[in-house]
UniProtKB/TrEMBL annotation:
Gene3D superfamilies to which the protein is assigned, alphabetical: 1.20.120.1760
PROSITE patterns reported in the protein's UniProt record: CDP_ALCOHOL_P_TRANSF (PS00379)
Membrane-crossing residue ranges in chain numbering: 479-499
Organism: Nonomuraea africana
Top-level division of the source organism's lineage: Bacteria
Family (UniProt): Belongs to the CDP-alcohol phosphatidyltransferase class-I family.
Name of the protein described by the UniProt record: CDP-alcohol phosphatidyltransferase family protein
Key words, A-Z: Membrane, Transferase, Transmembrane, Transmembrane helix
Length: 503
């Protein structure tokens, strides 16, 4: 569950932006009615923080954060936002995540990017004077998180973004949020009327060492509304966007393997939408995948060439539906412990029953029964690999996140914070951490990125290897392929995890 906090709109020419009507949307709701309905879908009793004066609002928010037993979603009350964007923000695994918009990079008359004369390490912090979408550009963001934030009193080094409004804070960071709000309330006299409440909160969180991740709008909509003209424009723009397509695209995992990305996910999402719209549950799709896997094993067990080809086709579609069940869950928002257990358990069952089918078929075809040694070796290797995967994942989840440097909220600029971040960067660039960082950076090259994905021999590549080698050759070739590739994957994976554990 998520605790929703609606933040009263900042002072402006329109004192009641929540009453503005979104005529182009179904039912022509007001801004407040639409956001209120979205908030109720997450929290039966959303909190509302009225912006009478800044200090009072901050103390009220601190009270909410202190009593929260779940994560918090902060939303300006004059927000117009897609449901899918709210879902993506609240389901992020970061300790805190903010929606941002980056300031367009300056370009010359030829359209080339203008490179600043002074490198950022030597740049002087400034009080940002530019604005974007009605908000002051007073945040510096990197590739994945907010680096620093400024205010009317606090200078920031080369600001390049605005914090649009939605901010999600995890349960573990709720006490920090409460502490930040109380400290900011004591400093309220330093801030200007243009300082946005969310901007101030992120300013405090970052200075307390909280890693605040960033997300752009991408193919979804968000805007704050202050006038009827803005409301009309926003409703028209939102109605022209395909939220369902964005939701469907987001149902596909973004970090899948090469085979899954290019030979399954290109079309499996449409099967998932078809299934979801007809009421099929993820568990029912999982059962289809299991049935296809068992049918593939039965075909392999015939030992005939036609049976081997049919088995290869069936094991491919068993994997397709294995992907579809997760996509249905994410698209239809149908998650459950049973479904997760079924998916993880029967992935292994399908592999192992196929191993048995291949071995039986090899013997039936008149070959040596020594094939069982290869089959058991492949099963043992894969079992050990899965055991290592799950045990490392469990241990890694218990590992506390690496702390970020902090600096007092009263510091007039972010020089000390940036120096501390630079020292941290240097420290993390030596020894084992340095090697891991270099290997991580190499991922920007597409060939290296996909090579790293494939070398670990994920399930998509394993099923593809089984389907292709069984259809074209025989079970012996299949098992030898699984053992060689699986051994390389095991060595690579164990080496990487040992290094990460020591880093």
């Amino acid at each position: 569950m998520t605790r929703v906090v609606l933040l009263g709109p900042p002072p402006g020419p329109d004192t009641a932006p929540t009453g503005l009507r979104l005529a182009a949307l179904p039912g022509a709701p007001t801004v407040g009615e639409r956001l209120g309905a979205q908030a109720l879908s997450l929290d039966p009793q959303p909190a509302t923080i009225e912006r009478t004066d800044l200090a009072t609002a901050l103390r009220a928010l601190a009270d909410v954060a202190e009593s929260a037993q779940e994560s918090l979603l902060l939303l300006p009350a004059n927000s117009v936002i897609h449901d899918e964007l709210i879902y993506q923000i609240t389901k992020a695994k970061r300790g805190a995540i903010a929606l941002v918009a980056k300031e367009p990079r300056p370009e010359d008359e030829n359209g080339d990017r203008i490179v600043p004369d002074v490198p950022i390490e030597e740049a002087v912090p400034e009080i940002g004077a530019n604005s974007l979408e009605g908000l002051m550009v007073r945040a510096r963001v990197g590739k994945s998180r907010v680096i620093s934030v400024g205010t009317a009193h606090h200078a920031v080094t080369r600001p390049n973004a605005v914090l649009l409004g939605p901010l999600h804070v995890s349960t573990r960071n709720a006490p920090v949020l409460a502490e930040v709000c109380r400290e900011l309330a004591e400093l309220a006299h330093l801030f200007g009327p243009e300082d946005d409440l969310v901007q101030l909160i992120v300013f405090g969180l970052v200075r307390k060492g909280v890693s605040v991740g960033i997300r752009g709008r991408r193919d979804l909509f968000y805007r704050r509304i202050t006038t009827q003209a803005e409301a009309t424009e926003a409703a028209t723009e939102m109605s022209g966007m395909d939220e369902d397509r964005a939701r469907l695209n987001n149902a596909v995992k973004g970090a899948d393997g090469f085979f899954t990305t290019y030979f399954v996910s290109t079309y499996s999402r449409f099967i998932a939408r078809w299934a979801a719209r007809r009421g099929l549950t993820p568990n029912q799709v999982t059962l289809i995948s299991i049935a296809l896997g068992v049918a593939a094993a039965a075909c392999f067990a015939t030992g005939e060439r036609l049976g081997m080809v049919a088995g290869g086709v069936l094991i491919y579609f068993a994997f397709v539906f294995d992907c579809v069940d997760g996509q249905v869950a994410r698209y239809a928002r149908k998650f459950g412990v049973l479904g997760a257990w079924l998916d993880a358990t029967f992935d292994r069952f399908k592999e192992y029953v196929v191993f048995a089918g291949l071995a039986v078929g090899y013997v039936v075809a008149g070959h040596s029964d020594d094939i069982w040694i290869l089959a058991l070796a492949a099963l043992a290797l894969q079992s050990i690999k899965h055991l290592l995967d799950f045990s490392f994942g469990a241990a890694n989840r218990r590992k506390p996140p690496s702390p970020l440097p902090s600096t007092p909220l009263t510091a007039p600029d972010d020089r000390d914070l940036r120096k501390a971040l630079e020292r941290r960067k240097v420290e993390r660039s030596t020894g084992i951490r340095g090697v891991l960082k270099m290997w991580s950076k190499a991922g920007k090259f597409r060939f290296v990125y996909w090579a790293r994905k494939m070398v670990v021999f994920p399930i998509g590549e394993r099923f593809a290897a089984i389907a292709i080698t069984a259809a074209l050759f025989d079970a012996r070739v299949t098992f030898i392929t699984l053992l060689i590739w699986g051994s390389v994957a095991a060595v690579y994976t164990v080496t990487g995890r040992v290094m990460r554990s020591l880093a």
